Structures are given as structure tokens and as C-alpha cells.
Amino acid sequence: MFHGARVAVIVPAYNEALLIRRTLVSVPAFVDRIVVIDDHSEDATAARVSELADPRVELVRHDRNRGVGAALATGYRAAFAWGADVVAVMAGDAQMDARDLPALLAPVVSGEVDYAKGDRLSWPEARARMPFLRWLGNHTLSFLTRLATGLSVRDSQCGYTAMSRRAAESVELEQLWEGYGYPNDLLGRLAALGFAVRDVPVRPVYGDERSGIGWRHALVIIPWVLLGVVRRRARATILAAPGRSAGIELAPPR
User: Which pTM value belongs to this model?
Assistant: First the structure.
């Protein structure tokens, strides 16, 4: 437990046989439950998880590859159904330093906010630690996310997060964007519901991991997700006016 709260960590993983063990053994002892979501990996990810003699670990396997957003939705449901008060996310590629977990959990456990998210861009020497294109891309996408959501987030693409039960029960997790645009979609949904979100500086970690985010995600998918966020905000404003109705939905890019 962490300051009296039951804490779960969910670990989305796809083809992370090389790094999943390093991720799981780094999870602090105060975490009560670890839910690993194997998003239909084609390597030995599930086997590496099963080898660990940690009673906190639960392995959930998708029967097809659905995307990291869908894996997180599965993980949130499993963790909160188990009884967690707060659920954090630590990806299976060992990119999230466990030393930063208490700082992420603290404002959620105290009730100050319902969602805390890592902010690598505010960490000292972030520019030196992060590959330049990722640093630049994160700044650009974060700027667009601030415009779309109205939230003052600095590093929208960081997946190191903590969410309260109250927020999870209000957000339609089954509607969450299934791929790499999920952080932007989730931020938009939280903002629309009026939940408080806080940035927490975390260490940028880069090493043996393989990024699944390509130019198509940065230039097409994530901007499309943000357009959806803007449309939902506009539709909510229109529906709030008497006698008005929302516009039509657009098909997502493929």
C-alpha cells in the first residue's frame, strides 16, 4: 500500500521478451498488484512473465493484437476490479524509472488530482537525454494537445501515469483510442469531464527499447485523435445550447 491506498501497476507489453523482466522486478514493494497485458506478442513475452515468482503479478493475454490503448483499457478494468484505489502505468520496455512512481502516486492518493502524468520534458538535462527527434516531436504534439484539450500539459506523450478509481469509473474506457494516440484521447476525455490533471517531472529513460511510434502516428494518427477531441468539445458546447444538435462523425484514418 501507499499512504493507505491500494496501488496496482498495469504493464502493457507487446514483444517485450527482452525487457519485461527488467520492468517487473523494478516495481516497488509497496505496489500491491501488477497486471501485465500481453497484447498478443509474437515472442516469449508471456513466458518471461510466467517465470517470475512474484505473487503480485497477474498475466492477461489478448487473443489478437489490439494496440496499447486497448491493452491499457483491459489493464485498468482488471486492476480496479481487483480492488485498486489508484492504478499506475509502467510500460513493458523498461523506459519508466520506478524511483519516480511515488511522486506520480502522491497527488492522486491525496485526492489533489485524479490523473497524474509524467513530464520528461521538465526533467533537468531532458534535452541531452532524449533523442532530438523525440524531444522535438513531443514538444510539437504537446503543444497541439494543449490547444485541443485546454489542459496545460507539458509532455502529452508520456505514458507514465497514475489514475484514480473515480476517474476510471467516469471515463468510457471501451471508447479509448486503441493505438498510440491513446494518451491524447484520454487527456481529452478527462478534460471534458472536468477532472484535474497534473504534470509530474520524471526521468527520461532511453536504452534498449524499440519505439513503436513512427512518422505516420506523429503526422496522421495523433493529429486525427486530437481533431476528435476538438470535435467532442465543440459538440458538447453545441448540445449545451437549447435547440442545437451535434455534427456528424468522421471515419478514422487507416
Answer: 0.86
Q: Which residues are paired to 86 by β-bridges?
A: 7, 164
Task: Give the whole-angstrom CA distance, residue 106 versus residue 88.
Answer: 11
Reading the chain (254 residues) residue by residue, the pLDDT tens digits are 999 999 999 999 999 999 999 999 999 999 999 999 999 999 999 999 999 999 999 999 999 999 999 999 999 999 999 999 999 999 999 999 999 999 999 999 999 999 999 999 999 888 888 888 888 888 899 999 999 999 999 999 999 999 999 999 999 998 999 988 999 999 999 999 999 999 999 999 986 555 555 556 666 788 877 888 888 878 766 666 555 443 333 444 44
Q: Does residue 58 contact residue 74 with C-beta atoms inside 8 Å?
A: no
Buried b (16+ CB within 10 A) or exposed e, 68-104: bbbbbbbbbbbbbeeebbbbbbbbbbbbbbeebbeeb
CA 21, chain centre distance (Å): 20
Element (H, E) at 115: strand 115-119
In angstroms, the CA 165 to CA 41 distance is 28
* Per-residue cell: 30: 509497496
CB 83 within 8 A of CB 95: no
Domain residue ranges of the chain, discontinuous segments joined by +: 7-239
Q: Which of 204, 197, 169 lies closest to 183 in space, CA to CA? A: 197
Among 3.30.9.10, 3.90.550.10, 3.90.850.10, 3.30.230.80, what is the CATH number of 7-239?
A: 3.90.550.10
